[in-house]
Fold:
Amino acid sequence: MCRRDGNFGMVTALLAIPLALSVGVALDYVNASADRENLQALADSAALAGGGQYDGTNASVAISTAEAILKSYAEKLPAGTTYDVKLDGQSLSVTMDSASTNAFMGIVGRGTTDIGVASTAISPMKPKKITFMPTKAQGWYYKKVSIIVVRPKSTAEEVVGTVTYQPTTQADGGQGTMVVSPQTTLELGDYASLILKMEIKYDGCGLNQKATVSNSKVTCSASNRNADKTFNLTLRTDNPDTTHYLFVDGVQLPQGVTSPLESILECGKTSNHAWEDGGGWARQDFFYTATSYCAPNGQFVRLTR
Structure:
């Protein structure tokens, strides 16, 4: 006669082995997932740190910064962990390969689980150099366009270049001469914000000067009058009240918003600018082209994967 309790005990014992192995495999998987998450967090940190240093000219600094982050955690990583840091264009990539030790799957001959992660940080482009080329100016007003940068951790405005228009006659709606300073590509350097500003003096002459008009000819001479010590109107691309005075490629910028840099100076492109000096919207008065040359901006680095 067969004893059922004995059979049950045998079946239970046989089932216990795969059940225990299944639980062990699950635990090994959880541990491997945790190791992968830690590895991914480290790769992300290294990519962001390296990408944050990149300015388009210092590839070795960006790569060594990322590698320094990885090396600082070397003792905490599983033995045999390898990594690779590469820089391609605006993107800095970090790949890491490692192995998570299995506590249970070693029973069936699998002592480790391979884990690998990758992270890429991209530094968006921003203008580093600008070439301004005057094409036309008209009107009765004296006008001065300034290219201004504000350096990181500073509020001081630094003028890096100017374009001025000096009317010489009021005939033909006002005609005159333009001067660009400096007459080379402007090196912007590292900056937090870039601003275009146009200052206007209604009489037709610059600061500390007064205009005399005879037979439409405009002559400027020195002046101590308070009225000649300041401009009558100042327009800025970071002033929501005056952004609409600037036209870019024939399109008037909207009023009431601070015009984003990328809508004014597109990387690697030449845009046509036209400023209205306040005399009437039908005819702009100050025309020039702006060509920007860009490089990665580590200040706004972000992860892409």
Remarks:
- The mean pLDDT is 84.
